[in-house]
Amino acid sequence: MAANNRRMSGKKGAQVGSGGQRRKGLEGKGPTPPAEMRKKHKKNRIATAKAKQAARRPVPRGRGGKGTSEMVVGRNPVVEALREGVPATTLYVQQFIDNDERVREALQLAAERGGINLMEAPRPELDRMTNGLNHQGLVLQVPPYEYAHPEDLASAAYDDGEDPLIVALDGVTDPRNLGAVVRSVSAFGGHGVVVPERRAAGMTAGAWKTSAGTAARTPVARATNLTRALEGYKKAGIVVVGLAADGEHTVGDLEALDGPVVIVVGSEGKGLSRLVGETCDFRVRIPMPGGAESLNAGVAAGIVLYEAARRRG
Fold first, then answer.
1. In Å, how far are 10, 103, 184 from 215, measured between CA atoms?
2. Which residues are paired to 90 by β-bridges?
3. Main-chain dihedrals φ then ψ at residue 117, nearest 5 degrees
4. Where would I find the beta strands (DSSP E) of the chain?
5. pLDDT digits (tens, 9 = 90+) for 29-61
6. What is the number of alpha carbons within 13 Å of residue 280 lying toward its C-beta?
7. Distance separating alpha carbons of residues 218 and 301, to the nearest angstrom
8. DSSP one-letter code for 35
9. Which of 179, 180, 176, 172 is nearest to 264 (CA)?
10. Structure pTM?
């Protein structure tokens, strides 16, 4: 009976049957969220206004043109993209999200990078933005990539007193292969990569990640018509070399790699298209004594770029 009186007395302090709720109330709730994520804060209002203004702004097109904006969806993909330095404009975080380690890391990385708007949004809005994908409460908006013009790659090389070393991709549709090629071009002193405007991989978040940050210093150009772009290079005195399994020359014997050259790499399955193959000055093959039928674009480009860099000293 004494216990019942104590429970009904209204006195402060621990009571029978509390289940430790008071103790839980004393536990910390984690670090204070950034100002941009706090409702009614001035920075939150500014970030929201900037994001809305950017969404309404039309996308300009320069000589090389721009791609389209992209959404990276899900906690792990968002964190990985931020770790790899993928360019981003806005990090959307779901309201009342379960604040686990990945969410905290994403917020911290975005804050440390600077220039990334932090916006809180209700789940229905994130569902609409991602077309119902499993976003897990995190969505990262990647801005359109600013492509160079094919002529700009050669001009920049000549301005630096160097012979152009360029890789062109014909029918390569996997962004990871594009990212790997960009990484190889950067590693071996190349001057950029050319991709067709249609039916080809573009500089998406996946390509940025695979490039391991080298996309920030190695330009990618987009050609409306790859064949015409290669013909333009030839008129400028640049040799066009295509990789083909039935090439007349081997990579190690081709002296053309000493000078200004464009290396054309086709898709792993189909190789070079007919018109592109006919445009090439030389068709070369990579000897493969192990018996493999083909190499993916990233590996093939790396081998030829290494040989070109070796010949150039």
1. 66, 26, 11
2. 117, 141
3. -70, 140
4. 70-73, 90-94, 117-121, 138-142, 165-170, 192-196, 220-223, 239-243, 249-250, 261-266, 282-285
5. 555 666 655 656 666 665 555 554 444 343 333
6. 25
7. 15
8. G
9. 172
10. 0.74
